[in-house]
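ok so heres the complex, two chains, lmk if somethin looks off
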Amino acid sequence: MSPRRRLLGTQVRTLARRSVVRTLRQPAQLVPAFIFPLFLLAVNTGGLQRATRIPGFPTHSYLTFALAIPFMQGALFSVMNAGTDLARDIESGFLNRLALTPLRGPALLAGLLAGAIVTALAQATTYILVGLVAGASFAAGAAGVAVIFALAILITLGFGAIGLFAALRTGSGEAVQGLFPVLFVTLFLSSMSLPRNLIHTVWFREVATYNPVSYLIEAIRSLLITGWNAQALELGFGLAAAIALAAMVAASVALRNRLERT
Amino acid sequence: MSRASSRSVALAVAWRAIHNFLTNPAFLVPSIVFPLFFFTAFAGGLSTIGNVPNFDFRSGYTAFQFVFVLLQSAAFGGVFTGFAVAADFEGGVARRIMLAAPRRGGIVVGYALAALTRALITWALLTIVALIAGMRIDGDGVDLFGLYGLALIVNVAATLWATGVAMRIRSIQGGPLMQIPVFLILFLAPVYVPLKLLTGWIHAVASVNPATALIQAARGFISGSPAHVALAFAVAVGLVALFALWARGGLRRAEASS
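and the predicted structre for the whole thing:
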């Protein structure tokens, strides 16, 4: 391994460790990321179980149908957590001090996302276990669970990078927090609560069809309800990868600009 | 003399809070946009739920969800006012108001008046949007008076609750403590379908949740078939009485600390 690559690895490891430890030390950030999605899952499952009686509903268990949603809500929290942490580094001058070191941009971004990914893994494990205990079905079996983990990490990477981009552009934790309602709206205006073909309100169905969040949810949902659905998985992974790539590129450019400014 | 001074304190506090609300987009936009968004997401995205067997709310799903969002905005209007109270304590403004006010009970009344004004603005917009979206109203004028009257009492109760918390903690960090109980109580009621269509644990919880009586009565008003009216108003007035004591206790704590 070249010395340059070894140095990059050391930088990523050091920053990743800091990011993970920092995440674990902030229960005020962590607890809502676990509790809120599960609370909404419980309420929606109880309140909308009757929706499974609508002709054409794909499953008899609303729990199985709704289990995909916490993964997306968890990803939204990763925007907040990753973005707020970086914004705090900018506000406190830590990033300026890092800029004086030989640290490379990709190492900083990868290191900062490590905390979000560790949280995403813990969240995914919790949601899967809660689903199993509550009686949700996993049509694609154990391999499907592994694929859900992979997709959850990819989604978190993309949404976490959006948080980093927002933090780097604005340098303000408050501005990153302001992103939450916007992303929350994209979640609600998706096929979150009903399959798209059962949404009767035409404009809502159109919005849900053009909303990429619908396809991320439907990819996870397909593994729970129908088994292996190549189209749903291609769309889900494709869009998640596209979001992650676009957000990482945007965050890299924003980082370069910010370091130039300082 | 004392009544006049209480009124002038209340009006001054209310004017300041309303002015801040109307001139700062960071306060104004969320309190207007969020109820409209929830209404759109619930009434639009879930309209098919109205076709579930035994869903027999005659005014349709849009009206069914309008009532929930109206009461939710009433409650959260009060909670947002609690945030303003907490911010006033953090910034030191509240302490100066307390020093200047001859009768401090007027401070709580002032914040409650501001919360009510915020709620009225939100309700006006929400009602217009709901009517444009084709909401059916089967209740008559008296029923609608009952509907908005109930929402008004809920707003006062939530304001007193949040103000009590804000005056005890005197920091915006008390925000989650103000809103999480309200959020829980509202969402553990029959939000998406009538109580009789709920199943399992949520049916058991919703059956004893006081918010259920409020929501059921309000839905009865809009559909022109009032039900559980006495129970709903008793619950609402009881909550106001309880949280008035809570807010008064908070005021005493704030006085003791200043």
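quick notes: Chain A has eleven helices and no strands. thats all i got rn
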